[in-house]
Write a structure and sequence with these properties.
The complex is a heterodimer. By secondary structure, chain A is an alpha/beta fold. Chain A folds into two domains: about 140 residues, Rhodanese-like domain (Oxidized Rhodanese, domain 1, 3-Layer(aba) Sandwich); about 140 residues, 3-Layer(aba) Sandwich (Oxidized Rhodanese, domain 1), CATH 3.40.250.10. Chain A has eleven helices and twelve strands. The N and C termini of chain A lie far apart (about 40 Å). Classes of the chains: A alpha/beta, B mainly beta.
Chain lengths: ~290, ~100
């Protein structure tokens, strides 16, 4: 993968609003954003209602994903262009999800909804009609998704990248600062994880930094990109943004996203936790 | 969840004595600016959170006590404001964008 195959610019999207095999998809948790307005011809996917199992904490099944894409009018050979608010956090999450189920050509709009709005580009209220398709997904690609046992085995062995803000990493905050802080899980981070906030990979307008800047960012933070890497955050959407940077823009092999992230790890019984601003040793503790 | 609710979350049902709230309004020429983006940066300038403003220009963060920077982005302008927050006492900030 490379920047050229994974990212498209706002200009490219404007030029392809009416291209038949290009499907724009807005992904936001805040569904009111799409209802208010969206890029012309964009359909909506709700990261929670459409992509999460309604009962247990897991993804929808392959069959449910096929039904969803069929209902949205997305075909196997369509170019899917994802965008959304929150600096593309949930669009990156959906991108990773589309890759997990093997969609061939999926791309991200650089800068997402924010860049589009700050450029004062056209947004409409009209919801497009797309004919249903018969979509066939692949089995989940296990090489890009990490589970909790992968994390406990990776402590002190693989690169673990905690992409939350420094205050969440150190344990000062339990959630991003636009959310209430009362939570059940422990504060801190997975021992030996480096703290490289997702935001360091993006400019203020939400676009990604250059390849050279991105490579330097991870290397100066001590991430040996020749080793296996797992990224995590609180619920796996900001780390999907970092997974996108490493795996899709920089083309680094063997990078996984841990979607259980801190809401799972921080609630596990008996696992080591590190508090404070340092990665810490494998046993964890308080710095 | 991690998504940014427009205008920040409601205070309904939240024990504000346990929270460190930074909130305010973005305006230009005395008119509220909806759909602007307000970024909360920590004491080292690192990004912590971002919310779009509501139709009435409002935003809200749940932070921690200390010094913060509010960076407001709107078409054609970017403005930084320094704030000091403390627990149990909401800080109200009026962000006036250049005309």
């Amino acid at each position: 993968m490379s920047r050229e195959s994974a990212l498209v610019s706002a200009d490219w999207v404007e030029e392809n609003l009416d291209t038949p095999n290009v499907v724009l998809v807005e992904v936001d948790e805040d569904t009111a954003a799409y209802d208010k307005n969206h890029i012309r011809n964009a359909v909506r996917i709700d990261w929670q209602d459409d992509l999460q199992d309604p009962v247990r904490r897991d993804f929808v099944s392959k069959a449910q994903f096929e039904e969803l894409l069929g209902r949205k009018g997305i075909a196997n050979d369509d170019i899917v262009v994802l965008y959304g608010g929150n600096n593309n956090w949930f669009a990156s999450y959906a991108y990773w999800y589309f890759k997990l189920y093997g969609h061939q050509d999926v791309r991200l709009l650089d800068g997402g909804r924010k860049k589009w709005e700050l450029d004062s580009r056209e947004l409409v209220e009209e919801v497009p009609e797309r004919a249903a398709t018969s979509y066939t997904a692949q089995e989940q690609d296990a090489t890009i998704r990490a589970f909790r046992d992968d994390l406990t085995a990776a402590i002190g062995v693989q690169n673990i990248v905690d992409v939350r803000s420094p205050d969440e990493y150190s344990g000062k905050l339990l959630a991003p600062a636009h959310l209430p802080q009362e939570q059940s899980q422990r504060a801190g981070h997975i021992p030996t994880a480096a703290n490289i906030p997702w935001s360091k990979a993006a400019n203020d307008d939400g676009t990604f930094r250059s390849d050279a800047e991105l490579k330097e960012l991870y290397e100066t933070e001590g991430v040996d990109l020749s080793k296996d890497t797992i990224a995590y955050c609180r619920i796996g959407e900001r780390s999907a943004h970092t997974w996108f940077v490493l795996h899709e823009i920089l083309g680094v092999d063997n990078v996984k996203n841990y979607d259980g992230s801190w809401t799972e790890y921080g609630s596990l019984v008996g696992v080591p936790v590190q508090k404070g601003a340092v990665p810490g040793g494998p046993e964890g503790g308080e710095a | 969840m991690c998504s940014a609710t427009v205008g920040g979350l409601s205070l309904e049902g939240i024990d504000v004595t346990k929270e460190t709230v930074i909130q305010g309004t973005v305006s230009r020429d005395g008119q509220p600016v909806g759909g602007a983006y307000v970024r909360l940066l920590d004491g080292s300038g690192e990004f912590t959170a971002e919310v779009p403003t509501s139709a009435t220009g409002q935003f809200r963060f749940f932070a921690a006590p200390g010094s913060w920077t509010l960076r407001t982005l709107a078409p054609g302008s970017t403005l930084d404001r320094q704030v000091v927050a403390s627990q149990g006492q909401a800080v109200d900030v009026a962000v006036e964008l250049p005309a």
